[in-house]
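Attaching the record inline, Q. Sequence:
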Amino acid sequence: MNIRRVGASALMALTIGFGLVNIQPAQASPRSSGAPRTASALTPSQAEITKVTLADTSIAGPALWTTTSGAVRGILAWTGTDAAHHLNVSSTAIGTKFANKVTLADTSPTRPAVTRTPGGKVAVAWIGTDANHTLNVLYDVYGARAKLTLWGETSPYSPALVAASNTTLTLSWTGSNSAHSLNLLTVGVGATVTKGAKTTLWSYGSQTGPSLSYEASRSEYLLAWTATAPAGQIAVASSADGRTWSARTLLSDWSSATPSLLGIVGGYYNMPQHYMAFTSADPEHALYFLSSSAFPRWSDPSDARVRLAESATGAPALGFISGPGLLLAAWTNTDSARHLNVAILTALAPSPCALPGVNPVAPRVITAGTSGRREVALTFDAGGAEGQPFALLDTLKSKGSVPATFFFTAEWAQSHQAVVNRVKSDGHRIGNHTVDHSDLVSPARSSAFICYQLGLANQIIADRAGIAGTRPYFRPPNGSYNSQVVNSAAGIGYSTVLWSIDTIDWNDATTANAIYNKVVSNLGPGKIILMHVGSLHEPEALPRVIDYIRSQGYSIVSLDQLLAP
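Structure, as predicted:
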């Protein structure tokens, strides 16, 4: 993947202070923690978007489904640029890295639709490559794959699909009649896929396919489309049951492709409840994002929009993945290969870093305990290689249940559920090591980016571990911090925890003897020892390290006890 950052002046939750977003190249983050580094902070008036360009390519815009919890936070679906235009589906745990890709035997001339039931079954819908472009639905993409071909139901454009329950889907599409009226169809799913009741919205003509979303907290279905009259103007409507719809509301915006309309949980992170992404109808095909706190009304576009310095082929997609108010956008680039792009839009005010219901703490950087007691603490970072985590845990347990603190990245925790379970069951403390081990100082970061890295990581790790959260301990990747990092972390309840003894065990060239000698030569009251779960030689060194510490009259205690007065 090619990862780039996008900065914007005074971007706040897509709600206020919008401006043109400029793309800046990023530097690769080092793998490991070395000596802590400091650097000057980015101006706090700036906010940030994290953009990922995938290796996959698409003939049209992608489809996106998102959720605010669980091991799968997003599903991406697209039509490939291969000669047959096969459908593809992939999933993400953190929003910016996709895996579990499947390429279906089915093909389409345009983008598919994708959704996921509350029970976890993925479904896609598309128009076929047959002469009539017949609609199709495939249920349980990652399982049994039950398919329904809706003979007689056709569309010239991409359909839309949502799952409000485990037993029914709602399919929407633009009809092939002269008025291009919008249609909705209930689809029963289970061992088989069955056709249910159909609704035709005769007065809702669309010159592209519709977008359809559902917000369970309000039992609210949302439709968006480009009207046939006025041609290309964006229209929206809502429904409580998916059958009876409100009168359409026209926005003062036009689009050349399907707009993506999204409803989120009311009041979540003080965000507006409705968002939209669309591709402009001008020759630049620029990406725009709007928000509304008074749906179906939308604020004046001059103060309720973001324009990205990006252009899109076809329609974008928009989702909400929770965290500190995080929106996930996906689109197909206008480059010659038509690469897929995804971006997280950080939706917090850049400064100060704060989350509703979370009390800030005094900013501090911890490198050791200060009580003077002959105590030390063991800490393990987990954000890179898998290593031999169970060997480390077995050693800690066999040595008399030695306590330790494990700093997980969200990405690592998502991929190593059994390890997280064992760490919790053995009674070890779990800390925050960010979402994906991004350096928080270099390249220059915004407070919003730091909030995103800590806020989303906390939610994912807590979900994986079955704990209330990872506060109050946060360790910056690579030991890289500045006052902005420390202050931002404190704003959402974290102390920044570094170390006093670096075993350098992340380096495969550091032998077990070298790890041991690092501890021997630096041991002292209150020391925090840095180790890594992915270390090649730590499993061999750890028993010797524990025995030596105790032989010198020291107790190995939890980080909580070490830092107590």
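The mean pLDDT is 88. The two ends are 46 Å apart (CA to CA).

More tomorrow.
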